[in-house]
Amino acid sequence: MDLGNASSSSSGGGGGGGGGSGSVEVQLIYSITMPLSSTIILTNLLIILAIGCNRRLHTTPNYFFLSLLVADLGMGVALPFIPWMGLSRPLSFGACLMVHVLPNFLFLAFLFNLVMVHYERYLSIVSPLRHRSFWVHRRFPLVLLALWLPPLLFALLPAFGWNNRRGGRARSGCCRPGAAQFGGGATGHVEGGATAGASTEPNCSLSAAAGSGSGERCCTYRHVFPNAFIYLEVYGILVPAILSIAMMTGRVLWITHGQLKDIRRLQLSVTGRGRGGRQLGVDLRYARCVAAVSLTFLACWVPYIIYTHVGMAFLLRPGAEGNPTAHIVLSCAGVGGMAAVPLVLGLANREYTDPVRKFVHKLHNRWRQRRRWDAESIAL
User: Fold this and answer.
1) 257-286: per-residue pLDDT in tens?
2) What SS3 state is found at 166?
3) What is the rounded CA–CA span in Å between residue 168 and residue 174?
4) Is residue 179 a contact partner of residue 90, using CB atoms and an 8 Å limit?
5) Is the Cα dihedral 323, 324, 326, 331 positive or negative?
6) Which of 127, 34, 38 is closest to 82 using CA atoms?
7) Tens digits of residue pLDDT in 122-152
8) Strand, helix or coil at 301?
């Protein structure tokens, strides 16, 4: 979930999208999110096509990974909209629900699928001879349904009534028509009772005419998600999921380390030598594996963990004000890094990348051959 709670550092007199700092922040959002989103979408599509076109890859583990790629594709589509969840925008409550519930559902579905992919691979390492007889393989259609249905139901709880629509101060101010402001404080209000850049009219109507000057009520994530909902999602779903992924990854590395020790003892008993070139090569591959896993965690998960803790810190300090630029950068880096985890897993598997590599190699050879023919025809 986006926990953005940044406050506008500019004075509240300017409208949204004008020549003030708001337009700079909007440009910053698009300049960061559009390249990230395009990269995530295109890479996921390539890996999905590689799995779909290779019948040898139509197995249960790859179906789980394919479900993860579809969820990650949705994250790539939703990425440009996530920084806007910390903005105050003039929207009706139904539209406000949609622009917050849909990205939250895609995020939860992505998280559930990511945990399942790690769990399935963990089982294949812990019990390589029996893992295909476990319930995740025997009931994989039900497992796939469980990866998407509970996130959808949980994300829809605000639409079922668990929201701040009638939360007193939650929607007591009105946005100017066309305005988009960074909401400050716990409820997007300053001490005077109105949002910076918003109208001071306390009882503006959602159905006001477009030219009436009152506009629509302000919409931020705090109007949709109560604090209890945010706490439940962060500490009941997000934190346990990240901890389980870290524990399963650490356990797999520990098992691999034990297997390498067994290989060393076997080599010692067979060759009678303590160290050889082959053993050194195995040790180097294991070291590279540990380094790759550690760097992936640092690059993909640490920014999101920092972003989440910053958001929770603002949630616990209602009067705090934040930097909108820092909020945009943290949200884009955190969500973008997390969405890159399946891409790292997919690109590290040669079964997924070989079809794409062969296709690119074929196109390159045809291009070089065409250039050679053109050069020969010009020479003649």
Assistant:
1) 777 777 667 766 666 555 555 555 556 666
2) coil
3) 14
4) yes
5) positive
6) 34
7) 888 887 777 677 777 778 889 899 999 999 9
8) coil
Q: Is the dihedral of CA 157, 158, 164, 166 positive or negative?
A: negative
Q: Kindly list the strands in the beta sheet with 181-182, ordered across the sheet, starting from the edge strand earlier in the chain.
A: 181-182, 87-90, 218-219
Between the alpha carbon of residue 143 and those of residues 117, 190, 327, the distances in Å are 11, 47, 36
Rounded to 10°, the helix 60-78/140-155 angle is 20
Tokens describing residue 267? 């080599």
pLDDT digits (tens, 9 = 90+) for 35-89: 999 999 999 998 898 888 888 888 888 899 999 999 999 999 998 888 887 777 7
DSSP 105-155: HHHHHHHHHHHHHHHHHHHHHH-TTTGGGSHHHHTHHHHHHHHHHHHHHHH
Burial class of residue 96 (count of CB atoms within 10 Å of its CB; 0-12, 13-18, 19+): buried
Mean pLDDT in the chain?
74
Phi, psi of 201 (to 5 degrees): -65, 115
Q: How many residues does the chain have?
A: 380
Q: Tens digits of per-residue pLDDT, 2-22? A: 555 433 333 333 333 334 445
Asked if 40 contacts 339 with a C-beta cutoff of 8 angstroms, the reply is: yes
Which of these, 172, 188, 189, lies nearest to 221 by C-alpha position? 188
Residue 22 is predicted with a pLDDT of 58
CB count in 10 Å sphere of residue 158: 22
Helix ranges (H only) for 219-273 are 221-224, 227-233, 239-271
Distance CA 151, CA 107 (A): 9
